[in-house]
Specification:
The chain has 459 residues and is α/β, with parallel strands linked by helices. The protein has three domains: 13-124, Fumarate Reductase Iron-sulfur Protein, Chain B, domain 2; 139-235 and 392-456, FAD/NAD(P)-binding domain (3-Layer(bba) Sandwich); 239-388, FAD/NAD(P)-binding domain (3-Layer(bba) Sandwich). It is built from 19 helices and 15 strands. The protein has helices spanning 13-16, 29-36, 46-50, 57-65, 69-79, 83-89, 96-99, 102-105, 111-124, 147-158, 175-178, 187-199, 216-221, 253-261, 288-299, 320-328, 395-399, 428-431, 436-456; strands at residues 139-143, 162-166, 203-205, 227-230, 236-237, 250-252, 280-284, 304-309, 332-335, 337-345, 348-362, 368-380, 383-386, 390-391, 423-425. A five-stranded parallel β-sheet has the order 3-2-1-4-15. Strands 6-13-7-8-9 form a five-stranded parallel β-sheet. The protein has a three-stranded antiparallel β-sheet with strand order 10-11-12, with no helix packed on it. α2 (29-36) packs across α4, α10 (147-158) runs parallel beside α19 (436-456) and α14 (253-261) packs across α15. Bound molecules: flavin-adenine dinucleotide. Residues 89-91, 143-149, 166-169, 174-175, 179-180, 209-211, 231-233, 235, 257, 288-289, 292, 319, 393, 395-396, 427-429, 433-437, 439 line the site of flavin-adenine dinucleotide.
């Protein structure tokens, strides 16, 4: 008998767009078992190959079917210590679920929802895994506590290394903490998941900017780290380079989201950092960051929030679920529009002028290229959030001249090895803005290379 894909319960759109509580409410055991029963347990599971950290997906789903959730958790934990996070934010439709055989004729198994269910079960039931770590007393340093840094740290710790993570901000987790909003990824979940690394003995140091407080050279030569992993992400926003872009009321998504997620601007004046957006808010961009900015603006009380995107709906790079949720929350999508100028009065932005685009031939990304038409439209706005991408912050490069980077500031690596012996890199700092699970996969793989390097270069 064909069983339909289970739908995850969510908060009603007109209720949730006024609060910051989590939108998707998760599956209970009964729903999880129904969804798990849809898995075909393929002999040659394509989902595992498409998972950047190669979780044994059929095995953990089988354990859910058998109601052995602890076993399911242990299976996932071997490959990924952050299941409650990845279950919530991975673009599953492009990875594991995209490869699910069931998806050819109907809907794929909801692997992400099941992963989240198992991760949340482990948190609620305080499941702990004692790992037997044999200390080797060799010190390694990790720069950045985002998913790449955490995954690398955990893999190295399991091999017995003394692992120190250095984080520039006052909270750990990278984008998971300061970028992805509470209504998609509760910060209590981020902290609980990261605490697992602390329990394993990974040391965390905050408020230390590598490249300013301590240099890479010092880490290697004065602090005696045998190897370093750069997982410092891509936190530098790209600008549109337009006239009027420095008017008051124009934010970069990073700043806007950090003010809300990390500095709790939504709780102003109880929290000290405000964010002023007004009633009409334009969001420029079509990725996950743009969706998060739009939905956050709505929750801060803006009446009209519209996304300006230069291609069409099919080309939006954001996760399908986020687009779907944004539409339900009455975010307006104004497509085939490219901002060309911001117009202000008394230094405050008042309007955004956009060129109307049309779609031409396919470009290198496989999507139809937006072409200018020399026709324009102008919209009244009180604020605008620019979300068109990020590149790595140049602080480390500036303090480390022999670190090779490309013309976009991304660290150049060969098998995760940078141009400096013993210094490795992975995640967004190498690829540019990508995904949580790709960053984790890079962190894990880089750890293997770091171990090889250290073992080969032992005194
Ligand atoms: C708003 C937003 C929403 C997103 N949504 C999704 C999503 O739904 N799904 C998904 O898969 N991906 C999403 N992404 C992308 C994903 O979060 C990133 O690809 C991922 O976090 C990259 O991990 P990372 O560890 O390489 O870098 P980061 O997460 O950026 O972590 C880098 C860390 O290094 C620290 N750091 C930087 N410089 C220094 C320094 N000099 N010294 C010390 N520490 C330093 C930073 O403070 C930060 O904590 C989103 C990104 C954003 C911005």
């Amino acid at each position: 008998m064909k069983i339909d894909r289970v739908k995850m319960p969510v908060q009603e759109p007109n209720i949730r767009n006024c609060n910051f509580n989590e939108v998707a409410l998760g599956l209970d055991l009964q729903l999880a078992k129904i969804e798990a029963s849809r898995c075909l347990d393929c002999k040659n599971p394509r989902c595992v190959k498409e998972c950047p950290v190669n979780i044994d997906i059929p095995a953990f789903i089988k354990s859910i079917k058998e109601e052995n959730i602890e076993e399911a958790y242990f299976t996932i934990y071997k490959s990924n210590i952050l299941p409650s996070i990845c279950g919530r934010v991975c673009p599953q439709e492009k990875q594991c679920e995209g490869a699910c055989i069931l998806g050819i004729k109907s809907e794929p198994v909801s692997i992400g929802a099941l992963e989240r269910f198992v991760g949340d079960y482990a948190i609620t039931n305080n499941l702990k895994i004692e790992e037997c770590i044999i200390e080797n007393n060799i010190k390694v340093a990790i720069v950045g506590s985002g998913p790449a840094g955490i995954a690398c740290a955990v893999s190295l710790r399991r091999l017995g290394y003394t692992v120190d993570i250095y984080e520039a901000l006052h909270e750990f987790g990278g984008v998971l903490q300061y970028g992805i909003p509470e209504f998609r990824l509760p910060k209590s979940i981020v902290s609980t998941e990261i605490n697992k690394a602390k329990t394993m003995g990974v040391n965390f140091f905050k408020n230390i900017i590598i490249g300013k407080s301590i240099t890479i050279n010092q880490l290697l030569n004065e602090y005696n780290y045998k190897s370093i992993f750069l997982g410092n992400g891509a936190g530098l926003p790209k600008s549109l380079g337009l006239k009027g872009e420095n008017l008051t009321g124009i934010y970069f998504a990073n700043e806007f989201l950090t003010r809300v997620n990390l500095m709790k601007a939504n709780q102003f004046p109880e929290a000290p950092t405000p964010v002023r957006i007004g009633q009409n808010v334009a969001i420029v961009g079509g990725g996950n960051v743009a969706m998060d900015a739009a939905r956050t603006a709505k929750r801060l009380g803006a009446k009209n929030v519209f996304v300006l995107y230069r291609r069409d709906m099919n080309a939006l790079p954001a996760r399908l679920e986020e687009v779907h949720h944004a539409i339900e929350e009455e975010i307006d999508f104004r497509l085939l529009l490219n901002p060309v100028e911001f117009i202000g009065e008394n230094y405050q932005v008042k309007q955004v002028k956009c060129e109307i685009m049309e779609l031409g031939e396919k470009d290198a990304s496989g999507r139809r290229r937006p072409m200018p038409t020399n026709k324009f439209k102008t919209f009244d706005i009180d604020s605008c959030v620019i979300s068109i991408g990020q590149s790595p912050n140049p602080i480390i490069k500036k303090a480390t001249p022999n670190l090779e980077v490309d013309n976009r500031g991304r660290v150049i690596v060969n098998d995760y090895q940078t141009s400096i012996p013993g210094v490795f890199a992975g995640g967004d700092v190498v690829t540019g803005a990508a995904t949580v699970i790709l960053a984790m996969g890079a962190g894990k793989d880089a750890a293997i290379q770091m171990d090889k390097y250290i073992q080969t270069n032992k005194d």
